[in-house]
Amino acid sequence: MPLNYIRLFMVVLWIPLSAAMAQDSLNTVIAEKGDGIYSLLRKQGVDPYMTYDDFIALNENRLRDSLHLYEGMSYIIPEIAVDSAEILKESEKSVIVKESPKANTYDIFGKQYAEFSDKSERLKETVFYLISGHGGPDPGAMTQYMGKSISEDEYAYDVTLRLARELLSHGAQVYIIVRDPDDGIRDDLILEMDKDEIVLPDLSIPLDQKDRLEQRVNAVNNLYKKHKGKHQRLIVTHVDSRSKGQNIDVFFYYHEKSKRGKKLAESIHNTFKNKYKKFQPNRSYSGTFEDRSNLYLVKKTLPAMTFIEIGNIRNKKDQRRILDYDNRQALAKWISEGVILDYETK
Q1: Are 110 and 178 in contact, with CB atoms under 8 Å apart?
Q2: If we measure between CA atoms, which residue out of 217, 127, 134, 131 comes closest to residue 172?
Q3: For the CA atoms of the chain, what is the radius of gyration?
Q4: CB–CB of 306/295 below 8 Å?
């Protein structure tokens, strides 16, 4: 065979071999029954909180509704970031050094989620008050799922904790007004009910509804006066409980006389609309933002605020949105993105 043909043959072989090597270098894994995005990443030794967005971007066409894995499908695992300053050649060290994100530890999130790293300082100098609905002697709406009782307050609290973690990771100062001493963020389908929630700093929650609401109003308003002059916002999270089992989208309420509250609600609402348009193009989004000045917390609290209803716990379709922890994380993340949009668009 002539030498020119031998060289050409070697080049043709080399190209697909290189491509195959590049493909094999990707870290992929097969999803097993029961896997969610977070559990899959954890099993691969990857921090799901830091790599969640990268995982979605790498696997967008392999996910159902942008959130759920298909059993038996192969998924690309994002590369693990270097923990310390990035190692560079000696000649490059004076040009750039990539520092590690700052590590934070908050016991309220539970052992599994207590430690996390900063994502940015986009919410630096902001203050947020987060209230999850009901709690203590009042579980809120209740229903049965797989033969077990589930309640509104447990799921609203889990979303609130996840939201707090998101806001903190962007530099915000966050006050979780209703707190549970032993229930951190939970990745369970059924969140066990209890009645040991308290109100900041360590107040028992009264049985009377008006007393409960007044207690939360006082906690927020006292802190608001302490942080006067800062960008302060209140977010109240509820799980809707319409008796007819009606399927609803996420709704946002504000006070009719609060321009800032309306802007906050509208920013989060627009974020949800855009997410549905991108990830569920065949499904219209019917959630709204509107005035609900008659609600006690909307009427009595001082910071600009939004009151969010994330679904109907008694509706089978909404239960999928509320009970699946990947969905609860997505809700928290989308709310936080709407919060950032509100803050950065003056």
Answers
A1: no
A2: 127
A3: 24
A4: no
Residue reference for tokens 């979303």: 159
Name every residue whose Cβ is closer than 8 Å to that of residue 86 and which is 6 or more positions away in sequence: 97, 98
Amino acid 142 reads M
Q: 139-143, 151-155, 243-247, 256-260: lowest mean pLDDT where?
A: 243-247
pLDDT tens by residue, 197-250: 999 999 999 999 999 999 999 999 999 999 999 999 999 999 875 544 455 578
**Alpha-helical runs (H) found in the chain:** 3-24, 37-43, 48-58, 152-169, 209-226, 259-279, 296-300, 316-323, 325-344
Mean pLDDT over residues 48-53, rounded? 76
**Closest residue by Cα to residue 268 from 236, 241, 239:** 236
Closest-CA residue to 172 (of 219, 131, 121): 121
